Structures are given as C-alpha cells and as structure tokens.
C-alpha cells in the first residue's frame, strides 16, 4: 500500500465507500475486504425504480462524469437517483496502490468488466434499487454499460454506451498495448516495484503523448482548436491537459485498468457469440459514436449497434474525437445531454 | 561509421552512387563527400525531357518503390527515364550510420526535405535531365514531390504527392514525436551511442507497434484483413510485417529521417505563407489521399490541394490506411497506378 494524495476526496470530491466483502473475481482470485467507492445524487423512490448508473472511464473517477449531473440536465437528481461508481482498480475503490499484501501493487489480481458490474449490482441491490431507468457511460464506462445490459437485462430499461464497445476490438487492443509500452518502458517502472509513482514520470509523460495523439482528431491539432480552451501552444496543450492528467496517477492502477479494458468482452456470456450476447439485451439502446474517434471508430460502434434489436445510432462530429465526452466544446456537451434526455423520454 | 548489412545491395538490389561533393545543408552544416544512392530505369531521350523522379518514404529505399516501375505500368521504363533517389539519411545515401567523424551517428547534421531535393536536382542535371514529366512519391516521398514542384516549377510538368503534405501538420509532428519516444526510451539507445543497432531491439519493436497502430485502419485489424496476406494472427502480423520491417534498421538513421519529416515545410520559401508557396507550382497536380489514413488525414490533403491551381484530389478508400501505397491489396495498386497513368496522359 503506497500513499498517493491524488486518490483522495480532496482531489475528487467526497465519496461513499461500500464494503463488498470478499469479492470472488471472474479470473479466480478473491479480493478480500473489497471496497467500492461511489457517489449518489438525488433520492431513490419507494419502488426503487428511478435509478441511473453512470460508470466511469479509464483513469477517471466520479468527478470526471459529475458535470453531466444537474437539475435541468438529462441526469437530473430531482427526478432520478444517480449512482456514479468508481472502477475497481481506479484508485478510489480497491486498487493496486491501496491494497494490502499479498495482492498489492503489481500483484493486484486481474480484473474484468464483469467484476465491476457485479460489484455495482451488489451495491445497488444493497441500496434498494430494483430497476435502472438508464445505464450510460463513456469508453470503459460504455464497456460497463454493455455488460450491465447483457448481464442484467431484466433490470436495465435503457442503455447508452458512449464511444465504447461491448467487445474490445483488435485495433483497440493494439492501442492499449502501445500506451502500456510507453509507460512500462520507463526503467523506473521496475516491473511495478517503484517506490513512488512520481518516479515513473517519464513513462507517464510518454503515455500521455500517446493518448494525446489518438485521443483527439487530426483536425483538433491542425486547426489549433486548443486555443479555444486557453492553451497557448500545442506544447502547452500537451503539458497542460494530457501530461497534467496522467502525471499524478499510479502506474499500477493505470495498468490494472488497461488490462481490464483490453479484455472487455460481453460474448464471454455466450461462448464467444457476440450477436447472441447482444441479443440478450432487452433495454432500449442508443449507441453514441464520435465521428473522429481513433480509439473506437464509428464503424466499430455501428457493427455492434446493428446487433441490438430496436437500437439507434447517434453520431457526434466533434474534432475532439474520443474526448468529445469531456464536453470541452459546449455543443458536444449539449448533443450528448440531449441524446440522453431523448432516451430517458422514450417509453419502454 | 558502423557496419549494418541491411544497408547493402544484397538487401535492396543494385544501386548507383552519385558523388555530390561538399553539400552545404540548409541548416548550415556541410556534408563533405556526400553521396546520393539511386536507381534508374529506362533511357533518357535526346532532349532530356522524358524523366520521372520517384523519391522514397521514411525508412524505405528504392526497392520499396520499384514494384510501381515496369512495362505496361504508369511508370513505364520503355517510355520514361525513371530515377528513384534514396533519401539522405536513409541508409544507402550518406547517413548517420555510414558517415565519418566528426558527423557520424548521433552527430550527423540536421537535414531538410530541401536538402534531398537539391541533391536530387544536382544528380538529374548531371544526368542531362531538362524536364520532368512527373514527380511522384508517397509520404516523405510526397514531401519531396511538393518540394520539387515549389522549388523548381519550370522543370516539373506534373506532380502526384501521395498521402503526404507540403507542410507537416501539427498532429503529424506529434505522431513523429511519439514514435521517436518509443525508440529513444530504450536505455540501449544511449543517446545514439549504441555499439550495434540490434542492441536497440526493444525500442525498435515498440516503434514498430506505434507504426502498426497508426499505419493501417481500425478496420484492417478488426476484420483481420492480415489473413489475406498470409499472416496467421494479429501477433504474427505485428511481428512478421511491422517488427520485421524496422528491426534491421539503424536507430540514428531513423531519427535523422524523422526529424526531416517533422520539419518539412515548403512555406519556408515564402516566409511561412503556404498558399504563396503552393501558388508557385505550375505543374499539373493530382493529390492522392488515402481515406483511412491516420498519419495524413484526407482533410490534410484536401486543405493543401485547394491551394494548388488546376489540381485534382483523388481519394482511395483502402483499409490499409497510410500503407495503402504498399499495394498489398491488388485493387489499391491498380488505383494508384491508374491515377499516375491518367496524370501522365494529361497534356500540360
């Protein structure tokens, strides 16, 4: 267990911790005394059926998704009981950097998207939730969204996976490998046995550059659209946004999430038959795709959407590519919010 | 000067060497006793006006482009005198790995695309060439194509830059930085003072992965189109094509070319005014763009094509992305060849 002041309420806002007990993971290990960090907004009604789950992306916490929650927005806490669960391995829940021997640091067990969703289901059941009006999430949050809709079809009324896949694509696996190599090539990483995460600064900066290159479109850079959000040069944008994002994080946490991302696959429920897995979904689904996304191409989203009965594809053209979700351009935030609102207003 | 059996005629086919003498570089250094390696096909006519120049891409040699030359093809040696010049720094011409002290290895001077084109112009003048029916090249070859058309407008009748830019885009600079970091992060690189290039194997493999990720489209991987060309798995494709390509190369040569790629900019001729530089072109220009290219997006090609009077844009939709040029899919080769033939048949 190493200390890292980044993974605190001071950095991410207050959160609750649910004691999962001994969580038997899909890959076989048992995470004893596992903890799930989460935040809630709004009130659960008597029937327990006004809940929304909004899981988070790679390297993110509840705080990254919180801007989408607010009165008058789609995710309106005056109407819904909204839960943002943090990922296992994400730094606030049980994670490599905060877990005890013998499973600490690089010995933390392999996780699956299914482990996250099972843990979240345990929490929601404990809270009295019976139905989910909506599950939505971005990127790894979309992976969890698909997992929810496939694993608990009777509970999920609507689902909006945003720029993420039910089954990680081969190209996306290569992407994960490339950014992990950028990180682990730092000799200071030392097979995960660094003393302080800051020692791995060079690897974290390199990883940030890979994210920057793939995370926003060519047009974002070539038209210097970083100017619109207060950066003075491309160099300033790389440092001020991308390096600044990853530098305070724990490399083992990042690698744990990356491995989970890479292995995401709802077809594990159906002996590898993706169409059969997606065929289990009874929720009304809006698949939200970002046109300029290099992590998850529009074709990847379309491919899966076509296997989901009654689903719709919504395509958003922003130059921010995969990072359209951050809503840095107000029109992007608006389109995503409007899409979620429309889905919530669709009767099921 | 280090030995590397990769940079030999045994590996790349026979080639000629032109003695450039003392080449004063645009950045100020003098490359004394500079050599330009090249191959020729066909015969120069009496007037010296049936020549074609076909410069090569990053990490390539004349052998990579040779398949586009042949009787019945656009680049037909029974009609044209075709010269394929190797890049300075590319390993066969004067390069970090083969140059003498004090400019050897990582002390090799910075090159520009203009240096290549000036050296090529010196060669062609020596050979008696007066007019170029066509200049064409892919990627860094396209950079040289633009430089030819801007620098020597009276000599260049037609130009076909293929998936490359007249001015390197900011996103492409980031791409170059990312793959250079993948290479130089290897401690064995040792600031360019390795004993043998094979010592930098890990960095070369990592760099190959970055190229693989950005060089072909998501769809190439996600539809396992590597099966069409004899690979048994994605892993086999990464090793058999991409790692195999870069592993025998010299890291300092690659970094020398990368720096030249990054700094490519025809607007240096016109005080930074790109439209003015492209306005100097009198050649008939076909800009060839690859729709799924992540190095050079179709928008990047369009942006420059629109600044060239009388030019046309030809878009090729292959899943091979930037590496469409390799013609691994026969229809890609055919479309590129047909486009060059059409341009050669256009009167100017």
From TrEMBL, chains A, B:
SUPFAM superfamilies: alpha/beta-Hydrolases. Residues 70-193 form the AB hydrolase-1 domain. One of its GO terms (molecular function) is acyltransferase activity, transferring groups other than amino-acyl groups. Keywords: Hydrolase. Pfam families: Abhydrolase_1. InterPro entries: AB_hydrolase_1 (IPR000073), AB_hydrolase_fold (IPR029058), HAT_MetX-like (IPR008220). The active site is at 139 (nucleophile), 293, 322. This is Hydrolase, alpha/beta fold family, putative. It comes from Methylophaga thiooxydans DMS010.
